[in-house]
Design a protein that fits this description.
The complex is a heterodimer.
Chain A (H helix, E strand, L loop, with lengths): L1 H23 L2 H21 L11 H8 L1 H33 L3 H16 L2 H12 L4 H8 L13 H25 L4 H8 L4 H29 L3 H6 L7 H10 L4 H25 L2 H5 L4
Helix pairs in contact in A: 2-13, 3-4, 3-13, 4-8, 4-10, 5-8, 6-8, 8-10, 9-10, 12-13
Chain B lengths: L1 H5 L13 H19 L1 H4 L17 H8 L1 H34 L5 H13 L2 H15 L5 H25 L4 H8 L4 H12 L1 H17 L2 H6 L7 H11 L4 H30 L1
Classes of the chains: A mainly alpha, B mainly alpha.
């Protein structure tokens, strides 16, 4: 009896050791993320609480509250993020719906039009819009020759250009989860609704649309969060007129070498992102979105 | 044609004609998604400073300028080197981590998984300035090593997610069978598991390559000096004026990306065939 028990304990210890060893396989990845990402960001967190005289102070945060320029930056950031998310929903949802209703072979072809920009370099796409939207660009040229407007319109280096570029870049992030949700819907439900006398519109809004909400929510969340921290597109297409938080962080470091101010802004950006993710995680399964769940 | 308009389009009684607007919007959206990027390709062969479309006179002057410029060539070499090394580092580390987390069912697995996808959730600007600070301390600023390490961190979440989900749909009892027949765990993994998740591993590798190759913000901070990346130089050029040379570089970058996509497709096809 005694021997059996020690054997059992030994086995359990062996199993535990084995599991720890397996877990250890992740250690290079964990170590790398800790050294390159977590510790430096932790340091930024610390620096944000150090004032110009080198002691603990909240001046970096107070500055953000006091100065009008900072309020404007936050306002712009949220404005751009909300508008981009909204436009992505308006444009992306119908497209996802259209593709989801097609036979598989054609649907796959249409999906390529979503995936191609998804894979193409962000910088290349931003550059393309810069070329197309500039004063002597293709859009102005064609619109004038078609008689849509007479004078070249300034569509780049301002909010319009930024939004066009951002929506173009964010659309796949919205379309793909929405499309996934739509494909998972049992279409017999729509037949049942029609059979029970619902008009096509009513069947759509009361049966189909609610079932796509998790996908729509996940996609919108993704777009919104990516927008909050976005840098390249507003920096190039905004032409200095659309200043978002990430751009201010960069200029604080590159131009003013003010680590305190940059870190404080970074902390605010990070905390808002995390709070949004946390609130969202209470409503939907984030692990499912990232593939972590079963 | 008229009959098609009046035929039912979905499971409900709506006809194609009634939802013609949807088709129009969808087609316009698809065109707008694809053309802006692709139109850069013919434009890059324009002779004009203003990148006409369609080009009035065709020329390769912007390509000549690109291939003749030592700075652009240096940046191109750096980008390819960094992307290739990132792929070589991120893929094995990430696959190992995904496998370890998948098999080891201890309590910290969830926390470790969250840690591994944080690089995706932290705004990239913070990653960039954090790495910049760390590299000054470690004295690896403007080195390929530093650049590759930072890009590896950005690529790891993708590798862990893609490989992890492949492992989830893989039947681990096959590996257990190999081990009960006497194969050590590493051998069972290499000969039984790995060949069956190879599609995910290859996809992870390609994604790692592209993550590094297309990355701008981190490269802006930690690459430079003797090792500036292509994206860093492009971004700086874009801030100043519209340099037509960028159109030729963009075309080459589109080619690289498309090549990667085709590779991924080829591997995907092989997988479905072998099934």
């Amino acid at each position: 009896m005694e021997a059996v028990r020690t054997n059992e304990a030994g086995l359990r210890r062996d199993e535990w050791l084995e599991r720890m060893k397996l877990f250890g396989l992740g250690s290079p990845a964990i170590l790398l993320i800790l050294v390159i990402l977590v510790i430096p960001v932790g340091w930024l967190f610390y620096v944000s609480f150090i004032g110009a005289d080198g002691t603990f102070s909240l001046e970096n945060y107070e500055r953000m509250l006091k100065r009008k320029s900072y309020a404007r930056i936050f306002q712009t950031t949220f404005e751009v993020s909300f508008l981009t998310t909204g436009l992505c929903i308006l444009i992306g949802y119908p497209l996802a719906y259209f593709i989801a209703g097609l036979p598989n072979r054609i649907a796959n072809l249409c999906l390529i039009t979503v995936l191609l920009p998804f894979w193409t370099s962000l910088l290349v796409r931003t550059y393309a819009w810069l070329v197309l939207l500039q004063k002597r660009g293709l859009v102005n040229e064609w619109a004038i020759s078609l008689g849509l407007w007479d004078e070249p319109i300034k569509m780049v280096h301002n909010m319009t250009g930024t939004l066009i570029g951002m929506v173009h870049i964010m659309l796949p992030f919205l379309i793909l989860p929405v499309y996934g949700a739509m494909k998972a819907i049992d279409r017999d439900l729509m037949k049942a609704a029609a059979n029970l006398g619902a008009s096509p519109r009513r069947a759509f809004w009361t049966v189909f649309f609610p079932l796509t909400l998790p996908g729509l929510f996940a996609g919108s969340l993704m777009v919104f969060i990516l927008c909050l921290g976005f840098f390249v597109t507003p920096a190039v297409l905004g032409g200095g007129k659309v200043i978002m938080v990430s751009m201010k962080i960069v200029s604080n470091i590159e131009l003013f070498v003010n680590w305190g101010a940059a870190s404080a802004l970074g902390v605010v950006l990070l905390v808002s992102t995390m709070v949004i993710l946390w609130i969202a995680s209470r409503f939907l399964n984030l692990e499912k979105m990232t593939g972590g769940g079963h | 044609m008229l009959r098609w308009f009046q035929s039912p389009a979905t499971e409900t009684q709506i006809t194609h004609g009634q939802r013609l607007w949807l088709y129009v919007i969808a087609v316009i959206t698809m065109v707008l998604l694809v053309t802006p990027t692709l139109i850069v390709v013919p434009m890059s062969f324009s002779d004009s400073q203003y990148l006409e479309f369609p080009p009035e006179t065709w020329s390769t002057r912007w390509y000549d300028h690109y291939f003749g410029s030592p700075e652009w060539m240096l940046a191109t070499r750096t980008s390819f080197k960094a992307a290739f090394l990132t792929m070589l580092v991120a893929t094995p580390i990430g696959v190992l981590a995904a496998y370890g987390l998948h098999c080891s069912k201890i309590r910290f697995v969830r926390a470790a998984f969250v840690l591994m996808i944080t690089p995706m959730m932290v705004p990239v600007v913070l990653v960039a300035i954090g790495a910049f600070y760390a590299y000054v301390q470690l004295q690896i600023l403007y080195t390929i090593t530093g650049l590759v390490l930072a890009h590896t961190v950005l690529a790891l979440p993708l590798v862990v997610i893609v490989t992890g989900s492949a492992l989830k749909s893989f039947d681990m009892s096959q590996e257990e069978a190999a081990r009960s027949l006497g194969a050590p765990r590493w051998k069972a993994f290499l000969t039984v598991t790995l060949p069956q998740i190879r599609f995910a591993v290859v996809t992870s590798a390609l994604l790692s390559f592209l993550t590094s190759f297309d990355e701008v913000v981190v490269a802006m901070f930690v690459s430079g000096g003797d090792n500036p990346t292509l994206t860093r130089n492009m971004f700086n050029a874009l801030r100043d004026q519209i340099d037509p040379t960028i159109a030729s570089i963009s075309t080459i970058m589109i080619l690289v990306t498309t090549g990667m996509m085709v590779l991924a497709q080829v591997f995907g096809q092989q997988k479905t065939k072998s099934k």
